[in-house]
Amino acid sequence: MLAPAFPAPVVANQVAFRAVMDAVARPGEVKALPSVAGAPSPLSETAAALALALLDYETLLWLDPPLARMPAVAEWIRFHTGARLTEDPQQAAFAIIADPAHALPFDRFALGTSEYPDRSTTLVLQVDRFGGGEGLSLAGPGIPGVRTFSATPLPADLHDRLVANRALFPRGVDLILVSANSVAALPRSVVSARG
User: Fold this and answer.
1) Mind listing the pLDDT tens digit for each residue in 18-30?
2) Is the distance from CB of 96 to CB of 126 less than 8 angstroms?
3) Is 22 exposed, middle or buried (0-12, 13-18, 19+ CB in 10 A)?
4) Cα–Cα dist 55/25, whole Å
5) pLDDT in the model for residue 62
6) Is residue 70 part of a domain?
7) What is the CATH number of the domain that holds 164?
8) The model's pTM
9) Looking at the domain assignment, is residue 3 inside a domain?
10) Is residue 45 pLDDT above 60, yes or no?
């Protein structure tokens, strides 16, 4: 029997949702994020919290190979959110990636269309920590001036991926990154430079 994920589900879901919205509104700024107990490994407790806050029975979700290999992960997500799984990343509204260093190229996911740019995939990347790895200088909406951002692990070519993703705007994927207790976002509107 699967137990409730949050002790006070409505309040906790609202807190998690607000943290994500704040992170998206302020790209590259790290926000505190509540976690949930009992998420099956390798699904992190913070990625699980996002799943509870963002997914529902209408959501198509793609899991990367480390997550997809563990049936308990899919069972937990289905039980708590009702989300349906897809093996086709192009069909997914959300993707959870436990191994971001080996994430699929962004163009393997739904990028939206000119008429419906919102029909794209939001990628949730589980990172070990913020503040490590290659530094990026971010600019764009929600960033006063320039903001420095780094996290690890991430794809070695993340900067190039972000540049290509920004070139598609208003199409493109949005990234939400979660560590053990925090969240940050790199939406498609972000402009990235190395350093």
Assistant:
1) 999 999 999 999 9
2) yes
3) middle
4) 20
5) 98
6) yes
7) 3.40.50.11310
8) 0.93
9) no
10) yes
